[in-house]
Amino acid sequence: LGCCYVSKPERKIVLLGKTGDGKSTAGNTILREKMFIPKVSANSVTAHCERRQRKVHGRKITVIDTPGFFDMDHNDAETKSEIVKSLIECAPVVDAFIIVLKVGRHDNEVVQKFLNTLHKDALKHAVILFTFGEQLEGKTIKEFVKDSSQLQKLVDKCGGRCHVIDNKYWKKRIWGNKSNRVQVKNLLKTIDKMVEENGCCTNEFLQKLEKHIQEDEKNISAVNLSPEEIREKAKEMVHEEYVKRLAGVATGTLMGAFLGIDVVVRSVVTLLTPENPQAVIQIVRAAAQNMTQECEIGSYLRAGITAAGGALCLAGAVGAVVGGVTGYKAAEEADSVNDSVTRAVADTYAKALHVNEKVQDLVSVASKDIKAN
């Protein structure tokens, strides 16, 4: 009898983190080759989303290095473009989000940003990877985490999943805890177990992006182009289209979609419906500018749904207006992109939970109003 070789599944990994914490070099360590150029400047605004892949421990690993979204302070077109590009690279599913943090004197504000912006659904698919492991100075990573209540809270929310590497001192060691090779192998095992328990991370928006990519692939002439080149060309076309269609959406709202926040995802997907997205945008802005008390949400939702109901799916319009109103207000009041994301997350969930019990009634009433008119 011959031996049956079972290949290990491919993995798609997304790196999240602050500029300067070793995100790009962590990507190189995972892929065991210098494929990302580390950002030497603290200014992350000019950074771009990049994807690299190669075989590691007998399987194809894709690493997506995102810009330093968590320390950006601009709500500009370039930032939005990079968020859209990151979403396209993630489509249709992601196996793991890797939160990259630096060992050393830790900035609790950075950890708090992750706690504020990553919802439990995203954290189910997250692993923390500490860099600069040599700075542990004899401590284990668990002991280091225990020293900070904020860090411990984040690790706990990630199911206790954390690993540590050192991009400088642990390169050449081939065994033991102070070996990048050993740590990466253990990291991939952790991801395998996490995917087995929690599945892959996806949402309606990522599925919609994948559908559009595949549609564009069919329309591209295959002359002298490999399947990989056709897909890259299709992704470029989808990126250009979506950047234009989402030009009026706040950066914080796009980040909410990237992080998989359900209500925000629904909002963005609805805004992308071809029938009449401008109607919903106008409703969202009008409602946001006039909503002064939480109890008023219901009336503005009803008005918004009634106005848009002829052109949009009612259930989708609810999601668009709920997510859009809160996201729009958060972006208007925020001083930075990160502040906008944080506020959008907290605000959207608070409002969504408040409205959730009323949604079906609102849809029913609005539907009757539309039919009557």
Summed up:
By secondary structure, the protein is of the alpha/beta class.
Count the DSSP helices. Answer: 15
Secondary-structure element sequence?
EHEEHEHHEHHEHHHHHHHHH
Number of domains: 2
Fourth CATH level, the homologous superfamily of the largest domain: P-loop containing nucleotide triphosphate hydrolases
- The level 1 CATH classification of the largest domain is Alpha Beta
Oligomer: single chain
Spatial strand sequence of the major β-sheet:
2-3-1-4-5-6
Word description of this protein:
InterPro entries: G_AIG1, GIMA/IAN/Toc, P-loop_NTPase. The chain has 373 residues and is an alpha/beta fold. It folds into 2 domains: 11-198, Rossmann fold; 248-372, no CATH class. Helices cover 55% and strands 10% of the residues. The protein has helices at residues 23-31, 77-90, 108-117, 120-123, 141-146, 149-157, 180-198, 204-219, 227-245, 251-258, 262-271, 277-290, 297-308, 314-333, 337-372, and strands spanning 11-17, 50-56, 59-65, 96-102, 126-131, 162-164. It has a 6-stranded mixed β-sheet with strand order 2-3-1-4-5-6, sandwiched between helices. The protein is globular, with a radius of gyration of 22 Å.
